[in-house]
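Try this one yourself first.
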């Protein structure tokens, strides 16, 4: 077993079982590039403040770059006895550079070092997620433009309610993912804070220059309290919360694709490249991709709950419980990025059955509200109109007909206010295009929403 950097206080070697139990290298080795980048910046700062010499700094930086190339090429040896990525790099650096390597850890602790690595990692991942969401929103806007004229039933309580444009329905998801982008953007502000220099918890006695280190690492802000800096995982909890909300949106869309692709609905067909078959039933085309997205949503929820539970009763400052933060974070990041990518590629290839969608709008009394609104325009109070149309629905259902299939005499029996123009009002295209309030499903309203979305996306791309 390797001698620990902290072994001076101890009279016994660490038990192998404890080494394996406490090791995090299998999880945190993916942070190696950030750990090296942070160490190089710290080394440059130590040289700038004359805490170490320029020659020592040059030697250390050269050694760190050698280690990065070794890990990049898969030539680096990992060992549980060295616990984590920080100690692996430090041990290898001593082998390459010699005694000068032992100067690198001056004025820092693994406590501020690890949170620096995680913040740098998450900062990059949030940028990737924001870019992925932007691409997905472009896909949704293009989809809405392509299928601007397609009509389908809108649902409440999973019951047919009123006809809407498919483009309007999909632009609802554009709005959801736009809010996701805003949440991740806000999270980025609180993630992008430089903690290095806080040391174990109390700061350091060395004359360090934290602002210089922050500039080297492109951090716009330096942490204000050393105790908070090493014990804060709010930014991870905030990210996992935003990721969970985003996964809700992916799961809801997945549920609709699963329903819509069933024989009972028949609204869409998933592309073959995004579906699977049955091992026993040759006819099956299963929506496994959206089903897995729906299932993986629970895993991201679990990551959030795990992180909240880890942090809920920890006294200040650092506690080893926090080692478990990375497993939850990495899991959620990987799942969310995969879902963003797969939906961005699947949505444009959906096969839309516009005839089935249109047929579905002709049954279920979807025009009942429009008939009530018609009576209101003729002077009847809405509550009275609601009751009147309800009676008409009962009558039509008894004849196995829809409201628009009743003749004018039958309709007039419910109110003398009803005239021949009622049939125009009850037509699907009229039901759609009369809903032209801001945010409504009328074609012009949806076209306006698409244009505004395109303008926002263009401005974002330019920025």
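Now uncover the answer:
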């Amino acid at each position: 077993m390797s001698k620990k950097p902290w072994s001076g206080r101890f009279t016994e070697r660490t038990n192998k079982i404890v080494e394996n139990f406490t090791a995090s290298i299998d999880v945190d080795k993916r942070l190696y590039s950030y750990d090296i980048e942070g160490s190089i910046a710290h080394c440059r700062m130590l040289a700038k403040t004359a805490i170490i010499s320029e020659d020592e700094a040059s030697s250390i930086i050269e050694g760190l770059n050698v280690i990065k190339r070794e890990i990049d090429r898969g030539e680096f040896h990992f060992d549980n006895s060295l616990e984590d990525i920080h100690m692996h790099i430090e041990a290898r650096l001593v082998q390459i550079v010699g005694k000068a390597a032992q100067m690198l850890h001056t004025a820092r602790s693994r406590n501020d070092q690890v949170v620096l690595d995680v913040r740098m990692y998450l900062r990059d991942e949030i940028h990737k997620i924001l870019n992925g969401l932007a691409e997905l929103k472009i896909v949704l806007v293009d989809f809405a433009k392509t299928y601007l004229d397609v009509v389908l039933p809108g649902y409440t309580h999973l019951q047919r309610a009123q006809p809407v444009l498919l483009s309007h329905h999909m632009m609802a998801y554009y709005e959801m993912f736009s809010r996701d982008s805003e949440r991740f953007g806000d999270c980025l502000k609180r993630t992008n804070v430089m903690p290095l220099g806080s040391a174990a918890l109390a700061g350091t006695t060395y004359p360090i220059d934290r602002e210089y280190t922050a500039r080297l690492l492109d951090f716009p802000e330096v942490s204000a309290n050393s105790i908070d800096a090493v014990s804060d995982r709010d930014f991870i909890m905030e990210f996992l919360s935003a990721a969970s909300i985003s996964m809700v949106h992916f799961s809801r869309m997945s549920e609709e694709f699963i329903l819509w692709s069933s024989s009972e609905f028949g609204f869409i067909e998933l592309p073959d490249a995004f579906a699977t078959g049955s091992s026993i039933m040759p006819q099956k085309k299963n929506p496994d991709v959206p089903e897995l997205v729906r299932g993986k949503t629970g895993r991201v929820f679990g990551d959030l709950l795990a992180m909240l539970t880890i942090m809920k009763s920890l006294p200040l400052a650092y506690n080893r419980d926090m080692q478990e933060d990375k497993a939850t974070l990495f899991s959620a990041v990987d799942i969310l990025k995969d879902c963003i990518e797969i939906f961005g590629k699947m949505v444009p290839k959906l096969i839309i059955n516009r005839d089935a969608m249109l047929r579905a709008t002709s049954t279920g009394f979807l025009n009942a509200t429009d008939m009530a609104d018609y009576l209101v325009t003729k002077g009847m109070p809405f509550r009275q109109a609601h009751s009147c149309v309800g009676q008409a629905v009962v009558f039509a259902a008894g004849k196995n007909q829809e409201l628009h299939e009743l003749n004018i005499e039958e309709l007039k029996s419910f109110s003398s206010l009803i005239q021949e123009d009622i049939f125009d009002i009850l037509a699907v295209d009229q039901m759609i295009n009369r809903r032209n309030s801001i945010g409504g499903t009328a074609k012009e309203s949806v076209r306006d929403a698409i244009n505004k979305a395109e303008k926002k996306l263009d401005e974002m791309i330019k920025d």
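Discussion: The longest strand covers residues 159-165. The first helix runs from residue 16 to 22.
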